[in-house]
Amino acid sequence: MADTIRDLLITYTQPEAHVNKIYLPEIRKSGNRIKRLLKKGEYMSSITFSEKALTFIFKKIGKNNVYAVTFCSYIGNAYSELGEFGKALIYFEKAQNILSKLKIKIPFDEAALYNNIATCYSKRTRLISSNYHNKEEVNKAILNYKISLKIYLKLYGENNKVVADLFNNLGIISRIKKFDTAREYLFRSNEIYCKLYGNSCLPVSISLFNLAFYYKGIKNYRKAIESANRSLAILLKLKGLENFKTKRYNFLSLIYLELKDYKQSLKYNDLELSSIRKHFASGTNDFNNADANLTILESLSTRANINRSMYKETCNKEYLLNAFDNYTKVIELLDILRLQYFYEDSKNILTIKSVTIYEKAIEVCIGLYRIS
After folding, report:
1. pLDDT tier, 324 (very low <50, low <70, confident <90, very high otherwise)
2. Are 113 and 99 spatial neighbours (Cβ–Cβ below 8 Å)?
3. CA–CA separation, 147 vs 107, rounded Å?
């Protein structure tokens, strides 16, 4: 629908666009192919075809047109999915620059670009440990989300999924600064999702899970556990979605670890590992996938941390040996991930994770040396 409206706007506001109509079938064919590749997760192929399409557009139509905006956005989306947020931002900002030079303003594209830019900043800062959050990038994410939200509210009103998603995303990034507004944004997204889809749907589960993170950030563990369990209860009624369940189990395991309730922490870590096995068995993922290996790494890291904490409490050597075994597996996975992460952003994030893992693994090795 948005593509059709875009074509009509160009045709009736730019006289030269009538000449360009002979190229539309080729451009649309390329666009459909790239969208299929993005949907299938073939991101590098989508980048290759998008770059070819951009060359065609620049040669036949010129550099400043809405099709250039679209294909720059495709490349940005592909890099974002690959975790290459720096490269994604280059293309999103290039698209934004082209859009600013057009004779007409196309609110669909404008809002989507602000949203995409915000998401890159948000994802990059959230993937890194809280000790390394870039305040400037957090502020840029919040600003761009707010601009996008303002445009979408004018286009659709409040009761719309895109608007609910933006409230949700604003809540996620705002909680890093422990803003009171984070809770308000997350509640508003939850209310809209409930109106649109009812109380037992995936979007409601996601917004409840984000609320759990907010409560954890302000040290309200009772509310954090309650929100995570409500989120999980919805998922358990839905088929599949093991990757979503895995994240809830990991969250609950870590919360109980902080509370030194090791029995509960182990229980949820067992459920997490079981959910990971089901996820792979479903054919949704495989062990050659970087995201899959990162999921296993985080689960085994949690297990090792539980064992390490239990040893500190009990001085039982068995727990220290278990921690050592799990850290050995985690470090092996780090070596695999280094080969799977090709790009600078991904490597930097992995380096920060590695430092934390090695620090704890060395502590375990020193502990074993002392008691042997």
Report:
1. very high
2. yes
3. 11
